[in-house]
Sequence to fold (219 residues):
Amino acid sequence: MPKTLSRLQLWEDFSPRTPAGQMACDEALLQSCGMPVLRVYRWTAPAVTFGYAQRLAAVEPLARRLPLMRRWSGGGMVFHGSDVTLALAIPGSEAAASGSSRDIYSAIHAGLLPAIQNYLPNARLVLPEECRCGPVCFESPVAFDIIAGSSKICGGALRRSKAGVLYQGSLHLPFVAPAEIANSLAAEVSRFEKAASLQAAIEKLASGKYETPAWLAMR
Fold:
């Protein structure tokens, strides 16, 4: 089966970051990447991210008093802490960034599926008729999410901009290796080398956007 991407750089990011720092890092990565980059990371403490279009007043009562952070991408609430979190930045010059958001989302999850099936052979993509609406991502499968039996294993959301496409996903398969994920997505995988300019961009986005009350409460 053809891979979703012809090439990919893998960034196993072990840096401890605040929720604002995590979201700033994902956005900065898309703004600076010259080829597709997969960032795989974990959280130092439990937190909740929620979709760009969601209202703070609607998600706050469901957050179990955990720190809340609005994502740049869409989708629903995601509880982080035990998951493997993914950020895939695809520059606009790549063929994988063209097409509809639905096509891009399904292609990414179809690419992830073989790595997941190594551990959960019954894992599959959600059919459109199986979707359920709701504010919490892992309680509300949407088309082309990944499930195994009745459990949602992987869900995500997209953000499209002039720079390209950012996929932000959450994978409930903590023992899968980042290299397995990357090799499932791309035919050629190399190591990502972070430039000093990227860290400066992360810090600027974190302080100027994601850490501000206006960002959290914009809706």
Notes: The longest strand covers residues 151-161. The CA atoms of residues 30 and 134 lie 28 Å apart. Residues 101-117 form the longest helix (17 residues).
